[in-house]
Amino acid sequence: MKLLEVKDLNAWYGSTQALFGVSFELEKGGITTILGANGAGKTTTLRAMCQTVKTSGDVSFDGHTISGESTDKIVRLGMAHVPDGRGTFTGLTVEENLRLGAYSRTDKDGVAEDMERMFERFPRLKERIHQQAGTLSGGEQQMLAISRALMLRPNLLLLDEPSFGLAPLVVQEIFDHLRAINETDHVSMLLVEQNASLALNLADQAYLLETGKVVLSGPAAEIRADESVRKAYLGY
Amino acid sequence: MNLRSIHTLWIAAVLVVLPFLFEDFTVFQINLMLVYAIAVLGLNVLTGYGGQISLGHGAFYAIGAYTAAVLMEHAQMSAYMTLPIAGLISLVAGILVGFPALRLAGHYLALATFALAMAIPQLLKYDSFEHYTGGVQGLVLMKPEVPFEFELFGQELNDDRWLYYFILLVGTFIFWVCSNLMKGRIGRAIMAIREQPIAAGALGINLAAVKTMTFGLSAAITGIAGALGAVTVAYVAPDSFLAFLSISILVGAVVGGLGTIWGALFGAAFIQFIPNVADEISKSAPWAVYGAILIALIYVAPGGVMGLLRKLKKGDTA
Amino acid sequence: MDGFLLQVFSGLASGSIYALVALALVMIYQSTHHINLAQGEMAMFATFIAWALIQAGVSYWIAFFLTIGIAFVGGVLVQRIFIKPVERAPVLNNVIVFVGLLVIFNAMAGWIFDHVVKSFDSPFPTQSPVLNSYISGHQLGTVGVTFGVVVVVYSFFRFTPIGLAMRAAAQNPDSAALVGIRVSWMLALGWGLAASIGSVAGMMAAPVLFLDPNLMAGVLLYGFAAALLGGIDNAFGAIVGGLLVGVIENILGAYVIGNDLKLTVALVLIVGTLTLMPNGLFGKNVVTRV
C-alpha cells in the first residue's frame, strides 16, 4: 500500500500560489526525494504535508485523508517533520528536545527505550544531554533534530534539506544514518534536498520540482544514470 | 452656485444659529463635545496617521488646561490669549515625550504613555507646585464675558453661547489646517513612516524629525483642546485628568475612525453623550460600554464610523 | 540604620507583590510577545471574587484557592474569546483590545461590587513571628506566599510535560506544532496561569491597599516597571525586578521625594529602562527599536 498519496496538490502563502497541481506518492518503507532549485516549492510541499500552509487537493497518509486536518492530528498519525534550519528548540536542553519529540506519545516505557536508542545511535548527543541545544554544532543539531523526529516513532519522516550548512564529512555521516534508520527501523522518508547527487544516492524514487510544478519523476537510479537528464535539470 | 457651495452655506448657516436652537445646558455640552473633537483629532494625528500609539494624551490635555488656568489665575490673562501659549507649551511637551518615544513602538510605547497618563494627576497634586496649580482643590476660572447683548429664538447670548462661537472658530481652523497638512507632503511623510519606516528612511525622510514633530503637533492640538476645555468648564483640578481621560480620547479616536479627520467629530459625540445615557444604569456603566464598544469595533469595524460610512458609500456607487 | 532596614524590608514585601504582577506579565509576554495592559484590572476583579466568597462565609484559604482556580479559567476564557481573534492583527488593534479589557474589568468591578472601599482581612497574624520590629505579619506572609508561587510555577515549567510544552510553544511555535503541541491552547494556558498569579498579587495587596476598583492601578504600573527592569522575557528577572522596584520605591519615598510622587517614580523607571536598558537586567533580544 502506498504510505503517502498526493494528487493535484495546490498550496498558497496568503494569496500567492506556490504549488500547482503537484502529484507524487511514497511506498511504505521507501525513500522518495523531491529535488529542485531554490524557490521551486520543495519546502512548501513538506509544509503542505503537515498542513502548516493553505492547501487544496487530495493528500492521503496511511489511508487517512489529511488535507484540511490540524497539524497536531497529522503528527499523531505518525508523520514527523524535520524542518529546514532544523527547528531545534535552542533554548532547551538536548534531553528536553528529545522529550518534546515524544510529546504526543503515551507509552512512557517506549519513550525511555527510544531515548536510549537515540543515544546509542548518536553518542555525541548523550555526551551533551543537559546542554542547551543552541550550543551544539551544526552537525550535532541536525542529529538532534532527526532524533527528535524519530522520538515520535513515526511511520514517515519528512526531512527538509538536512545537508544544509554542514561540512561534507558530517553530511555523509548523517546520510549513512538515514539509510540505517530506513533499513533497520523501517521508517519511510520524504526527503527534500538541493544536493541532488546525495539525495539520488539515498532515495528510490525522485521528483523534480520547478516553480511549483513536477517536471520530472522516476526511479532515482534511472535519473542518476541518465546523464542528459542530470545535466539538463540537475546541473551535474 | 454649484451644489457643493450651497451645501457648505447651509451647514454654515446651521452652525451659526445652532446655539440658539438649544437650551443653555445643551449648549454647554455641545461646547464640550467640540473641545473633545479637537482633542481626539490631536490623538488621531499621532496614532491614526502616524501609527504611534498613545495612551497618554490626557496628559497633554491637562498641560493645556493647566497652562490656561494658571495664566488666567496668576497672570490675569484673558482666555483667548492663553490658547496659543497653551498650544506652544503642549507642543514642547509633545516633543519632549516624542524623543524617548522614538525608540519605542507598539506595546512599549503604549505602556510608557499609559504610565505618563497615570502619573499626571499625582504630579498635579504635588505640593511644591500647589501655589500655582491650586493643589487638590484646583483653580476656578471665569468664562470670557459676552461683549454685547443679543437674542434669537427666545434664547439670549450667554457666556456658553458666546464661547461656542470661539470654540467653533478655533476648531474649524485646526481641522482645516490638519486636513491640509495630512493631504500634503507632511501627511504623506507621516503615513509613510507608519507603513514602511525603513523604506521611508531610504527615501530621505528624516524619521526622527518627522516622528518627533508629529508627537509635538499632536500634543499641541490636544493641548489647545485642553485649554478650551478648561475655559468651558471654568475649572481645573487634578482629578479631572485621570488616566481614564486618555482612554476616553482613545475611544473617541477609534469610534470615529483612526486616520481620519472628521471621525473626530463622531468620536467626540460618542464620548460626550454616551455617559449621559449610560449613567442612568450605573456609575460604571459608561465604562463598560466604552470597553465593550472598543473591543467590538476592533473585531467588526476597525475603521470606526468613518470606515463604515466609506463602506456604505462604496456600496452605493458599486 | 533601623529606619533604613525597615524601609528595605517593607520594600521587599511590597516588592513581592510587584514581582507577582511582573511574573504574570512576563508569562504572557513570553508566549505572545504582547504586554497585557489589563493584568492589574483582572487581578483586582479576581480579588473582588475572593472578597465575595469570604463574605458568603467561605473560609479564607479555601476562598484563596478557589479564586486562583476561577482566575485561571477566566484567563483561559479571555484568551480564547477576546485575544485569539486579534492574534494576527496589527499591534495597535491588540493594544486597543487590551485597553478595552482593562476598562471592562474595571467597570464590571464597580458595577457588581460598587465603589465603596471595602476591607479585606489578611489571613496572617498582625505580628510577625520573626523580625517583628521591621516587618508585619502580613508582610512576612506576602513574601512567603510569593516564594511559594515562584516555587510552584518554576516546578511546573521545569518538571511537567505541559510546562515543557508551554516553554517550547513560547520559544518556537512552529517547531512546537511539528511535535504535536496545540500551540493555540498553550497560549490560553499561559493566560490562565498569568491570571492566577495576578489574583494572588491582588489578594496580597488588598489588606494593605484596601479593596476598591482602583486597587491595582498603581501596583500595575510598578509591575510594569519591575518586568521591564528584570527583562520582559525573563521570569527570574521579573522576581528580582519586583523586589528591586519595591525597595527603590520605599527608599526614595522615605528619604528623597516623599510619598506623593510614587507614580512618577514608576514612570521614570519605565521610560528610563525602555530607553537606556531595553533588555532590562536579564532579558535577551527584546526588540523595542522601531
Question: Can you characterise this structure?
Answer:
The complex is a heterotrimer of chains A (236), B (318) and C (290). Chain A is an alpha/beta fold and 236 residues long. Chain A has 10 helices and 10 strands. A 6-stranded mixed sheet of chain A has the order 6-7-8-3-9-10, with helices on both faces. A 4-stranded antiparallel sheet of chain A has the order 2-1-4-5, with helices on one face. In chain A, a hairpin with a 2-residue loop joins strand 9 (205-210) and strand 10. The mean pLDDT of chain A is 90. With 318 residues, chain B is mainly α. Helices cover 75% and strands 3% of the residues of chain B. Chain B has 14 helices and 4 strands. In chain B, the strands form 2 sheets. Chain B has a two-stranded antiparallel ribbon. In chain B, strands 2-3 form a two-stranded antiparallel sheet. Chain C has a single domain, classed as Orthogonal Bundle (ABC transporter involved in vitamin B12 uptake, BtuC), CATH 1.10.3470. Chain C contains 11 helices and no strands. Chain C has helices spanning 2-32, 39-55, 60-83, 91-113, 137-159, 161-171, 173-178, 183-209, 217-230, 235-256, 262-276. The radius of gyration of chain C is 18 Å and the shape is globular. Classes of the chains: A alpha/beta (236), B mainly alpha (318), C mainly alpha (290). Chains in contact: A-C, B-C. At the B-C interface, helix 5, helix 11 and helix 13 of B face helix 4, helix 9 and helix 11 of C.
Count of strand segments of chain A: 10
Strand order of the largest sheet of chain B: 1-4
Gross morphology of chain B is globular
Distance between the termini of chain A: 34 Å
Shape of chain A: globular
What distinguishing features does this structure have?
heterotrimer, B: 318 residues, mainly alpha, two-stranded antiparallel ribbon, 14 helices, 75% helix, globular, C: 290 residues, ABC transporter involved in vitamin B12 uptake, BtuC, 11 helices, 0% strand
